[in-house]
Write a structure and sequence with these properties.
Chain lengths: ~250, ~220
């Protein structure tokens, strides 16, 4: 059984990326098309929300990914700090812009849904506020990567920022909970009780859940494809730089 | 360590050290607010705890890049790093010096500025309490930000972008404590949370700051 650390070798990583990329992209494309088409055209309107309920197919997956991408960056940053595998640091760098876009999609679709439903584009609700703060954390993280020339220094500093930022992001999440009461509905898709079927509280109906599951799957694979693609590009970029530097010396 | 503290304090008090500038900035923010929102005293009384907290936070932020920038430029930071003192201790002393030269004056002067903004009578004690409890966290978190950006030329804007999101929990609990105090509500929960954040930051963040400083000095 091959160890997972073999993929820390850039050559091996690129070879894997070449093999995985078409599959990940294909699966992402198919599931997204199926999920969105099913969701938008083949499900009924909600009896209270009307057709606005369909924003869920973009809003929930992107919000889910926005949080999980930060978590993935946390894990890769830790791997970089502990085991010094360059691919890990580059994967964190590659994931951050995807995370920003996911956060923006979640905020934007939320605003579009909130306007007809809550009568406002924006409210200082804990969930909305913590997402805005998450967005700021992503911005700071990317800005720090951009500001430093030396790639190893940049990787170290951003990794530490990611660790400290995670702690403060969680603190902020609970601080804003305390600070204002929520307008946003509670979790209704991924609850332990909802999965085991013991939950009698309100939960997303299966009519909406199946296409939503497709969309979530599509977003996950889209993210996997994008991270592989962007990490591969980063490795190529760094290699080009090294070759150019060697040529200048020689 | 005490010598280092004395040196940093002396540098801050000398001409060009920036001592008093933070205080002056705090004053000007406080004076500008009524021009922006109108002179109605009931409105000012309602928003004054929050405004004073924002002012203190910005005044703190402005002086952050001084913590390491000058020492970095003239090379004394390298000397400090090679001295027998642990870098974690140096970072903590730097944060303490920053708090003594910006945070503490803000705490002392804040009742005066509260007067300008028509802070209700019972709020003064809680305003000072919240600032005394909260501003050390601002200094310690800011030292981490300053250590992150020390090697970057013109890193001031980047420093604000990195540090302000980290200030969110402190600001929420600090302003909430001052507001509840001013309105005569129960203050135990925000006070305990604010103290928790401050002591947690003092205990743990110097390690992160020393780590990034070592990376920057590499």
């Amino acid at each position: 059984m091959a160890s997972i650390w073999e993929y820390a070798n850039p050559v091996k990583f690129i070879r894997t990326a070449d093999r995985v990329l078409p599959w990940a992209m294909g699966i992402a494309g198919v599931t997204l098309v199926v999920g969105l088409f099913w969701g938008f055209f083949l499900t009924p309107d909600d009896y209270r929300q009307g057709s606005t309920v369909k924003i869920i197919y973009l809003h929930v997956p992107s919000a889910l990914m926005a949080i999980n991408i930060w978590f993935m960056m946390l894990v890769t940053s830790l791997i970089w700090l502990i085991r010094r595998h360059h691919v890990s640091a580059l994967a964190a760098k590659a994931a951050a812009p995807v995370g920003v876009v996911m956060t923006l999609i979640a905020l934007f679709t939320g605003a579009v849904w909130g306007q007809p439903m809550w009568g406002t584009w924006w409210a200082w609700d804990p969930r909305l506020t913590s997402f805005l703060i998450l967005f700021l954390f992503y911005l700071g993280y990317i800005a720090l990567w951009e500001a430093i020339d030396n790639p190893d220094t940049a990787a170290d500093l951003t990794a530490v920022l990611c660790l400290v930022g995670s702690v403060f992001a969680i603190l902020s999440r609970y601080a804003v909970n305390f600070w204002n009461q929520g307008l946003h509905q509670g979790a209704s898709v991924m609850r332990a009780g909802a999965v085991t079927g013991t939950d009698t509280e309100e939960k997303v109906s299966n009519v909406f859940f199946y296409p939503l599951a497709f969309c979530i799957l599509g977003f996950v694979f889209l993210f996997i494809a994008l991270v592989f693609l962007r990490t591969r590009t980063e490795i190529h970029k760094r290699r080009t730089k090294a070759l150019l530097a060697r040529e200048r010396l020689g | 360590m005490i010598a280092l503290l004395q040196r940093d304090m002396k540098l801050a008090f000398r001409a060009g050290g920036g001592f008093g500038l933070g205080l002056a900035f705090f004053l000007i923010v406080t004076v500008m607010v009524p021009f922006g929102v109108g002179p109605e005293s009931s409105l000012l009384a309602k928003i004054s705890p929050g405004v004073l907290w924002i002012g203190a936070l910005l005044a703190c932020l402005l002086s952050l890049d001084r913590i390491f920038a000058l020492d970095w430029e003239d090379g004394s930071l390298d000397l400090l790093a090679t001295s027998p003192l642990p870098l974690e201790g140096i970072v903590s002393i730097k944060a303490l010096a920053h708090w003594l030269t910006t945070g503490l004056p803000l705490c002392v002067a804040s009742p005066l500025f509260g007067l300008l903004l028509n802070l209700p009578g019972q709020g003064y004690l809680w305003l000072v309490t919240s600032l005394v409890l909260g501003t050390p966290a601002l200094s310690v978190i800011g030292t981490f930000g300053a250590a992150l950006t020390v090697g970057i030329k013109r890193g001031g804007l980047l420093l604000s972008l990195l540090v302000l999101p980290l200030y969110v929990p402190t600001l929420i609990f600090g302003a909430e404590l001052a507001r509840r105090g001013a309105e005569g509500m129960d203050t135990t929960t925000p006070m305990l949370m604010l103290a928790g954040i401050t002591f947690g930051a003092i205990a743990l963040l110097p390690f992160a700051s020393a780590l990034v400083l070592r990376v920057n000095l590499r």
